[in-house]
Amino acid sequence: xxxxxxxxxxxxxxxxxxxxxxxxxxxxxxxxxxxxxxxxxxxxxxxxxxxxxxxxxxxxxxxxxxxxxxxxxxxxxxxxxxxxxxxxxxxxxxxxxxxxxxxxxxxxxxxxxxxxxxxxxxxxxxxxxxxxxxxxxxxxxxxxxxxxxxxxxxxxxxxxxxxxxxxxxxxxxxxxxxxxxxxxxxxxxxxxxxxxxxxxxxxxxxxxxxxxxxxxxxxxxxxxxxxxxxxxxxxxxxxxxxxxxxxxxxxxxxxxxxxxxxxxxxxxxxxxxxxxxxxxxxxxxxxxxxxxxxxxxxxxxxxxxxxxxxxxxxxxxxxxxxxxxxxxxxxxxxxxxxxxxxxxxxxxxxxxxxxxxxxxxxxxxxxxxxxxxxxxxxxxxxxxx
Amino acid sequence: xxxxxxxxxxxxxxxxxxxxxxxxxxxxxxxxxxxxxxxxxxxxxxxxxxxxxxxxxxxxxxxxxxxxxxxxxxxxxxxxxxxxxxxxxxxxxxxxxxxxxxxxxxxxxxxxxxxxxxxxxxxxxxxxxxxxxxxxxxxxxxxxxxxxxxxxxxxxxxxxxxxxxxxxxxxxxxxxxxxxxxxxxxxx
Lengths: 385, 188
What we know:
The complex is a heterodimer.
Chain A: H1 2-7, H2 9-19, H3 25-37, H4 39-57, H5 66-75, H6 88-102, E1 104-107, E2 114-118, E3 131-136, E4 140-145, E5 151-154, E6 158-163, E7 171-182, E8 191-194, E9 198-202, E10 206-211, E11 217-224, E12 227-231, E13 241-243, E14 248-252, H7 265-268, E15 275-278, E16 281-284, H8 290-293, E17 300-306, H9 307-318, E18 321-324, E19 333-338, H10 343-353, E20 356-361, E21 364-369, H11 371-384
Parallel strand pairs in A: 7-8, 18-21
Antiparallel strand pairs in A: 1-4, 2-3, 3-6, 4-5, 5-7, 6-7, 7-10, 8-9, 9-12, 10-11, 11-14, 12-13, 14-16, 15-16, 17-19, 20-21
Chain B: H1 5-13, H2 17-39, H3 42-58, H4 69-90, H5 101-111, H6 115-122, H7 126-135, H8 139-149, H9 155-162, H10 166-186
Helix pairs in contact in B: 1-2, 2-3, 2-4, 3-4, 4-5, 7-10, 8-10, 9-10
């Protein structure tokens, strides 16, 4: 640097002229030329420039009255919900209002989504002291938008819990039930969904997680991007399974041994490339993701779904209880698209495709084999088994 | 204690006005002074910074901050200030150090993506380091640098005031900058 200096007394004076605003057009052109001549020149210039800027920017004397300036400025913020750190209770109320303004309810007409706020919960130690709970009752679905712009669709009977510190280090939440996530990109703050059996981590992507407590499996289906998953039974803390788009991971909560697990029939008929088995986990490739994510849309696609697994979905969606008069019925598979149909309409449609009879009594639905129709459906029944 | 800007950005995203207040109070002065380097007009610079902070607050859910929040703030102010000056130049309203498009282009080319500068601007210690470095300058040098930097006198005015040549004035300013640079580098 010393050498560059002595050789460039003239240039240094040009640089000072530039800083002090007295440089001529011609001299500026010369300075530019000198700068483009070498990286060393540029570095030399940059150092002096930083010092010049900083000596002005970070001077201790100031005519700016910061309190006054802020007080004037904050008037511009009116009309925007205020959340302050100090006043604890009102803050929560504001949170509620803020959250409620983002809450869109769809699904069945009068269905409501309930918001509950809870005091510190022992059950979920992973989440900070105060947590916020979003609950969608049976018979309804809802969508929420988080502060980071992540959108979450909640299926019927689903609860999501997150701490007030959501977004500070991570964007972490607890899921019971089924939800579809459209995660806003933010590589600094991983988005983490915790369930009773698996933990899904994403940075910015779209995926579905199904983790109803009453079901034997937990599944995660990736539509776009990348997610990684850690299951409870993984030995190493850092072990993670990477899921690619169109893959679906199924975690078996109870069997704990993959050998005992037989793939459910509907997955076999899919254009499956491979099934990888890792402990209690199956990964299916090339799945039709819309089969697992369309519950949130106006067109819910059902494809060769056995009644055994379709029934719980219908139960939650319509808040009804379904009973089987005959175990054999559980193996019947159905395909179709449900738009705005009522339970009655859906069953009428089912009746056309299978020897099924049903009785609705308030909120219960009894399914039985239609003995008069079995003859005509014999083939189907056999094929299905 | 230096403010953790990225943490505060997350709070701002969550709608925390308290966090915005903290960021405002910590960064308003340096940002205004930085904008001043471009606009040469303090009141205008204050408006530039307020515009930027207000936009950030209003669009906090839509904004994606890819680098650090500090850089985002700095670059937003930098660009906004440049745009204002461009605008005024087009209407021939301004007379400041950047009186040509050439000079404006020069500042655009050289001031962006400077992580060192951004870190230092937002650091609480920078002011003290610089103050000390200036205090330690030889008397004549210190006097000239203060007249130039803080009283905004032109080289010509300083030269006339002290009975020196303009080149001598510039040489003193250059030496002061060298000392300040050394002091800042020592404190990385």
